[in-house]
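pinging the channel bc i need a second pair of eyes. not urgent but kinda urgent?? the chain im working w is below, pasted from the shared doc
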Amino acid sequence: MVLSKTASESDVSVHSTFASRYVRASLPRFKMPENSIPKEAAFQIINDELMLDGNPRLNLASFVTTWMEPECDKLIMASINKNYVDMDEYPVTTELQASI
């Protein structure tokens, strides 16, 4: 059973309850808005939309675990700003990737 639906004519705007303290008017869903919005509002709107995906920890239909050790999270966050395509700038990262 499919729980999602395609966007209709009435779904062309994003209405965020929690970002309403920053944004009074609705925002376009499928294109960039004409004016900028506060970064807090953008975060809240995107976070609200992602919350609709569900919680991966509660997905008992999958045999793949989505939980990681806290040390893995720390390593990911410590290296998230590296440009992995620039192999000359990050040679150790290139070696790690090649050894996998």
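so Helices lie at 39-51, 70-79, 91-98. and The longest helix spans residues 39-51. — does that match what u expected or am i reading it wrong
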